[in-house]
Amino acid sequence: MNPPDLAHLTYERKGHLALVTLNRPEVRNALNARAYADVEGVFRHIQSDGDVRAVVLTGADPAFCSGEDVKQMMTGPQREQSQARLVSVRPRLTPAAEAVLECDRPIIAAVNGTAVGWGMELALFADIRIASEKAQFGEIFIKRGLVTDVGGMMILPRLVGPAKAAELLFTGDIIGAAEAERIGLVSKVVPHGELLPAALALGERIAANPPLALRYMKDGMRRASMRDAREFGSWVSGALGRLFQTEDHREGVASFLEKRAPQFKGR
User: Which of 167, 188, 199, 232 is 20 to 30 A off residue 242, Cα-Cα?
Assistant: First the structure.
């Protein structure tokens, strides 16, 4: 099967293993509207391709994904479209999140650099995370006056414990690879040059197992740990719909673009 037409991702098949690479290295793989659509499209494609048994997700160096492309989405030609999207969020999982979460193939995130904002969400949506020594992780949504997606509030506490998750979510702090391994966010840390080979080798070991059993195994784990993901995703979307319209959100974006300290007012 041919993959969808992709603008900001690359897709390769290595036997029964799919390699998906976020490919906007000039902006540290930040996601614009087309990149979000690419994520959704490629994971819908994978879900429909019975020959794919496992997935490795990574980013083109130097980053995994730096989150949303705030500069382009809020100041470029997409500004009006982005503003309309922000105030008309529907109560449901976002399409890209839904596509990744509904993929029933094991997903390995090979985190080669910065993974913050929705980049960290993508890493959390994976079943296994392997990090380069250069990796960094951060749930920085609070800095923009927003809440995180399903990954931060449902998956992160299960991985690192409620208190540590609360610390990361409430502060927006960014942590390095060693700390991520210590708290259980990633399975292991490897030298940067060994990251992709290690992820592909693990993916090949997984893909060598019976494909139907793999899908049932993942489905069982998902049912046990994320039983209310759709309902919770609706709550997240509703909260974002309200927060996108606040002065604090606009200040969070403006201060980021203007490289200054924000002045939040609680409205």
Answer: 167
